[in-house]
Structure formats: structure tokens, C-alpha cells
Structure prediction request, 360 residues.
Amino acid sequence: MKTRLLNPGPVNISTTVRQALLKEDICHREPEFSALQADIRRKLLAVYDLDADWAAILLTGSGTAAMEAMLSTLGHADKPLLILENGVYGERLARIADIHGIGHSLMQQPWGEPIDMGRLREMLARGVGLLALVQHETTTGRLNELEQVAALGDEYQVPLLVDAVSSFGAEEIRFDEWNITAAAATANKCLHGVPGISFVITRRKAIENLSANPSSLYLDLRNYLIPQDNGSTPFTQSVQVMYALDAALDEHARTGGWTARRSQYREKMQLVDTGLLKLGISPYLKQGASSSVLHAYHLPDGLSYIKLHDELRKRGFVIYAGQGKLAETVFRVSMMGDTSTADAEELVDAIADITSANHV
Ligand SMILES: *Cc1c(COP(=O)(O)O)cnc(C)c1O
Prediction:
């Protein structure tokens, strides 16, 4: 039985993507590699129709590598960086800033609550140079209001650094209109590739204008842009993972791009929502606050996460625990990856089975 991964990455991959891993061996100093890298970088920009003012920089590493590369390279502004935190990944942004000695202020929000725009305005009015935030806070499944935040940022001329790791490829990101300087993402979430490659989509100017000293060798985006433009790479790349990402990007485009992927996720998440509600299991967030990618649910009374997880695992599903302070009270389900509406329905049936057995 195929295990259905309903955790927020790594995701189930399609047969086409899996077969791409088996292509011939190539050296990362040969022309075949240059062509593959150029294709991927072009296709990544094409996901959101970005022009030549933008560049996709490929890194070897998981999504956090891209977050750290983005923030450590671009986080030093003339005026302080403001980090918005309403979950574990916002905390991670702040931790990265601390480690790299990037002066910043923090706006902490109660997890799951709408962003307090009044408070954000006050913080921006104090003089902020850059605002870093997570688009889809995977901790709770909350889709942060990037559009409103960007509009406020615009008033104070504050551009955005966005953790789009669990949204790139399936949620709306208006890079130009929202005054985004850079966004970090990964191969193996909404793009349905294999883990091992992450990337930063950045305005070329932002990299060219940097004056701060590097605080990392491996994660400094300046070390990548020109070599990658020239068909090279400063360090060994995950060649096979790149084959898979290239195939995944083709599949993404062929199946209708980010809007179609969003609709597919929504349809499956809706089936899960409706099915679970009938079992008395309600979503953690208020209606309309969740992403299309992942929803968090209250654990039913008397059923521990471990029990639910282990029983589902026996039936071929992997779900995900709550993170941080939500570890004991919620569970999470993501419909990313090569999953079907039948998977969503079978998940609901399996949970129905487990909860009814739990009461006898
Ligand atoms: C998954 C995720 C990350 C990165 O996690 P890795 O384990 O390093 O791939 C970062 N931000 C968000 C919002 C995520 O969902």
C-alpha cells in the first residue's frame, strides 16, 4: 500500500517526477548541467510570470536554507528590519536574524489571529527598512494577509522579505505589486519535487546593491547569482534532485499552474473539512483564515495525537502533529503532493473508523 503523506512536505511525488530521478549521471561542470539549471531557473520565474528584473537562485538544502540565505544576505537595511511572528516559522526568521546579528524588532501576534494592522502601522511608522514575514504559517495553516500587509508597507515604503516555503506554487503571490524584494521557497512542497533543493526568488537589483559584509559563505546569495547566470554553480548541486524539480515544474505548468493547484488543494481540503465536521472535528482557525494547502483541526476529546497518528499510519496515512504550544491540542492535514480526492475521502473514512472504535 502506498503511504499517503499528508504532512506539509516532503510530499508524495508523481511517477513522472520519480522517473526523472533515474536520468543519466552528469557532472555539474558540464554543459548538460548548465542547460538543466537554466531551464529550472527560467521555469521558477515563469510560475509567477516574473520578468528579467528577477532571478531565481538555487541552493542545496531544505527550505530553511533558503530562508537563512534570504535573510542573512538581504536582511541588513539602512533602517531596522521588522519581523512579524505568528507561528514557528516566524520564530525561525527571528532566530536567523539573531544568529546573523541582524538588528531587528519583532511584532508578535497571537497564533491564528488576524494580523493587527493598527499595531503594524505603529511599528512601521517608527521607521522600518524591511519587513520579513511568513506567507503561509504552516504551524496553524494560517494564510497571512500579504496583500494588506504589502499595502501598509507601501505607505511607509517598506519592502517585504517573504517565507513562501509552503505557499510558492499554490497561493497568490503578486511579487511586483506587493513590493516584494525576495521570497524563499523549496522544491518539495507545493511544487511536488524532491527535498534537497531550495531557492530564493529575488530582485536582481537587491543583490547588486548590497554593501553589508557577508555573514555566511555557503548562504550568501551574492556567491550564486553571477555563477548561475553564467551556467555554473559555486558548489556541488543535487543533480538528480534538479532533474526531479525540472519534471515537477513541467507538471505544474502542464496541469494549469498555481491557480489550478490551488483549486485542487481547496477541493481536497474541503472534502476533509466537511467529512471531519460530521465527525464533530472542527478546524482550529476561523472560516476563511486557512491556506489552501493545509488545515489544522482540534483533536477530538479523549483521542491523543499519538493514537490518531499511529492508527492512521496503520491505514496508510501520515498526518502531522501540532507544533510548539499546539502540540497537544491540534493535528494537521495537508493535501499537497500527488494526492487525489479519493485520498481525502479515504482519510475521513479512516478517521471515522478510529474515532468510533475509540468510544467503545
Ligand atoms: C516547511 C517550511 C519551512 C522550511 O522547512 P525545511 O524543513 O527546512 O524544509 C519554512 N517555512 C515554512 C512556512 C514551512 O512550511
Remarks:
- The chain has a mean pLDDT of 96.
- The pocket of pyridoxal-5'-phosphate is lined by residues 8-9, 62-64, 67, 89, 134, 136, 138, 163, 165-166, 186 (CB under 6 Å).
- DSSP finds twelve helices and 14 strands in the chain.
